[in-house]
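Course assignment 3, question 2. Fill in each field.
Student: A.L.
Task: Predict the tertiary structure for the chain below.
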Amino acid sequence: MIKLRNVDRSYRTRAGETWVLRTVNLDICQGEFLTIMGPSGAGKSSLLNVLALLDDQWKGEYWFREQCVHEMKRKERAELAKKNTGMVFQSYHLLDDLTVQQNIDLPLSYKDISHARRQSMVSETLKRFELISQKDLFPSQLSGGQQQLVGVARAVIHRPALLLADEPTGNLHSAQAKEIMELFRELNRQGTTIAQVTHSDANAACGSRTIQMSDGWVIADTANPAIQASEVAGRA
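Answer field:
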């Protein structure tokens, strides 16, 4: 489904060039549930943003369902993302001027779905996430946990081919976190490809594959035991 080859990402600062992704080579198959782990500053969120087509300042090659993302213009990448991906952000990224119901409905506006069907899907999602009483509230009127639930609901409502999640349960209590991860497992069983960033071993255990990152490098991959930190260090 996804193929990355020699993907690099850096930022220019007064101190010079700071690298957040270094020569990332990664294949993600259709139907995988990938977990990305590593210490703070390892490059986990940077990698997720590249996969989600939210960052276009990287160098290298990226194929999504055999489409050459690295040759696409920004508008083409945005259209590809709207049709195929769902994203759960660590900092929510809800639209402040839209209600809970409108935020959840937003991804459906990019699909060829009738108004009646959209209303039905939003209603079902509000019930599933126990957000009916908050449906007319704005993000500023919600707790952090409630905003996280809305973010997850928005990401999954249109059943994306690729679901990306950055610490999806970080602001939820344990019962809610367990429910969200069970939802992810259910979606994965139904064919959704998932990539999550997490520090939680329990969340990682829900996936089928884990990669470890450090200083922008992929240093370990349960699908490729040959990758070792010592080998990566030798390339630096």
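Instructor remarks: Residues 2-235 form a domain with the Rossmann fold fold (CATH 3.40.50.300). DSSP finds eight helices and ten strands in the chain.
Grade: pending
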